[in-house]
Write a structure and sequence with these properties.
By secondary structure, this protein is mainly alpha-helical. The chain is built from 27 helices and 2 strands. It has 2 domains: about 230 residues, MetI-like (MetI-like fold); about 210 residues, MetI-like fold (Orthogonal Bundle), CATH 1.10.3720.10. A hairpin with a 4-residue loop joins β1 and β2.
Length: about 575
């Protein structure tokens, strides 16, 4: 076929989009926006005293007065703000330090390979592993005792659940840094960093200094929304706060859960008012962060104009090595914590200060019984169904984008991040009120529907870039051979994009398995999963049972990511020329 005819056939094939597919973007936007705004509205009314089912027939400020009269509420608000700001700042700083020190070195490739496995670890499992590592009776003190510390029994130190929430901050940094690293690595290719680095090197700038001068500012602008999402999540997180955070008083999100679970139903009004306080706090933190951006921008310009070019020579290398080591501490901590989860699940007698158990046993695993299989089945069922639905919607959106050439720009990105930019505890609490009214609470379908809202953004961010990089000439050739839309999609594009598609599915499963608040609030405690079980067990003293639950919680996403790597490699084992990404 002549080249012009082939191009015309490709253009006709590109325009021939099935009619029903054109409505997929609007449906996806609705699934992201409607639950958030309905949840917010459903939280605002009870927060202002209006909820007829519980006797609130008129608007009132009494619930808000009850919130600010609650003992320790100022401390709870401070803890939410402090842990959110501190963990986000540290995670962002360590991400940029790691990128600056590892730029154009093999370390960056090593970090890139670690991002996906670290992202697959649910927050609760990572928090439990960190607790096993840094607790007074944890692995770190066992390694140092008694030779270096003199401790023959666990020291009387308040490390886990400390009053300032430092352990909670460490847990959040360990989990949010891989997410920011993934976003940064995805944004870096568009910045032409190597060219910038070469120019700066010729001007006498060191590697790290050049990164912060020429690459960090535009990179931050590209990952600004993910940073906001991290700040919102860290200031309103519940599962990590329950495991690592202070208890007297607890951060605001935990206090809201306590009021919501109060047997006295009037506590629901107080919980709804607490949700309003949470969103006001979040907006205040975002405003403070934006003000901090402007202040740091002024400082950055002053440093650049001063002509400072960083430390050169062996001293500079030593500083870079030290900074790189510090930036890798969260990664190492998560890896050791996961190992400790497995160790505790198989541990026999393990007395302090022994570094390892005296023996290993299957007793903790054998005590699970048939209920464990039901728990695993529920967890997988709740994770897989929303993930598959999200995959269908995302592929439909990207196909419409390919056919029309319209990406939606910054507005589409804002809609995509909307569920991540609103505190979960705020609009989920409103959705719980709505589910109670509709008698849909405690249903597994309701939990799946809410999980879909959180799975969609992460899967879209994972799949969109590989989808857009797909060579359109391949589809033009297929259209020129007479292949219709569905044949091009399932016989050409999908087989060649098997690796990124399975990676997106693995991310969706990992995100869904890690959801605590949506499962607890919308499921009303009647849809137990491994995450809710792990958080519940963290309040007890049975480390072996907790190790089993957290190991299973971390193992399922790991299997999903392993399959995402193994299946494409197996399929393409005899097809080296097959484009897999």
């Amino acid at each position: 076929m002549p080249a012009r005819s082939l191009t015309q056939a490709g253009a006709r094939g590109r325009a021939a989009l099935p009619a029903g597919l054109r409505f997929v973007p609007a449906l996806t936007v609705g699934l992201l926006v409607v639950p958030v705004f309905v949840g917010l509205l459903s939280a605002v009314l009870p927060g202002l005293g209006y909820f007829p089912l519980l006797g609130g027939t008129s608007l009132s400020l009494e619930p808000l007065r009850a919130i600010f009269a609650a003992p320790g509420i100022e401390r709870s608000i401070f803890l939410a703000a402090f842990t959110g700001l501190a963990s986000t700042s540290i995670a962002l700083l360590l991400t940029f330090v790691l990128l600056a020190c590892a730029w154009n070195t093999p370390v960056l490739g090593f970090a890139r390979r670690l991002v996906a496995p670290l992202l697959s670890v649910p927050h609760a499992a990572a928090a439990v592993g960190l607790a096993f590592l840094i607790a007074p009776s944890g692995f770190l003190f066992r390694l140092l005792s008694p030779e270096l510390t003199g401790f023959s029994r666990p020291p009387d130190l308040l490390i886990i659940q400390d009053p300032l929430g430092l352990a909670m901050i460490a847990g959040l940094v360990a989990k949010e840094m891989p997410f920011l690293m993934l976003m940064a690595l995805a944004a870096l290719p568009g910045l032409h960093g190597q060219r910038r680095q070469m120019v700066l090197s010729s001007m006498g700038y060191g590697r790290a200094t050049g990164f912060f001068v020429a690459i960090a500012p535009p990179l931050y602008r590209l990952i600004r929304l993910p940073v906001f999402a991290v700040l919102v999540y860290a200031s309103s997180v519940a599962d990590v706060a329950l495991i690592l955070g202070p208890t007297t008083p607890a951060p605001l999100a935990v206090r809201i859960l306590e009021w919501a679970s109060d047997p006295d139903l009037s506590g629901r009004f107080q919980a709804a008012a607490g949700a309003l306080v949470q969103i006001a706090l979040t907006l205040s933190l975002l405003a403070l962060w934006i003000a901090g951006e402007r202040a740091l921008g002024w400082l950055w310009r002053a440093i650049v104009l001063s002509g400072w070019r960083g430390t050169a020579g062996s001293g500079g290398s030593a500083v870079r090595a030290a900074a790189l080591t510090v930036s890798l501490v969260p990664v190492v901590a998560v890896a050791i914590g996961l190992t400790l989860l497995v160790l505790w699940s198989f541990a026999g007698p393990w007395r302090f200060p022994d570094a390892l158990p005296a023996s290993f046993t299957l007793r903790s695993w054998m005590q699970l019984g048939s209920g464990a299989w039901e728990l695993i089945g529920t967890t997988l069922w709740v994770a897989i169904v929303p993930t598959l639905i999200a995959a269908v919607l995302i592929i439909g959106c990207l196909e419409v984008e390919h056919a029309t050439g319209r990406t939606g720009g910054s507005r589409a990105l804002l809609v995509l991040y909307l569920p991540l930019l609103i505190p979960q505890v705020t609009f989920l609490f409103g959705l719980q009120f709505l589910a109670i009214v509709l008698r849909a609470d405690g249903m597994i379908v309701s939990v799946m529907a809410v999980h879909l809202v959180f799975v969609l953004p992460y899967m879209y961010l994972s799949l969109a870039d590989p989808y857009r990089r797909f060579d359109p000439r391949i589809l033009q050739v297929a259209a020129g051979m007479g292949m219709g839309f569905w044949r091009r999609l399932f016989q050409v594009r999908m087989p060649m994009m098997l690796a990124p598609l399975l990676t997106a599915l693995a991310i969706g499963i990992a995100v869904s398995i890690g959801q605590y608040l949506p499962t607890l609030l919308i499921g009303s405690g009647r849809v137990p999963t491994l995450t809710t079980e792990a958080v519940a067990l963290s309040a007890g003293g049975n480390r072996r049972a907790l190790g089993v639950a957290a190991t299973l919680q971390a193992f399922l996403p790991f299997v999903a990511f392993w399959l995402a790597l193994a299946v494409p490699a197996f399929v393409a084992r005899n097809r080296r020329g097959l484009q897999v990404a």
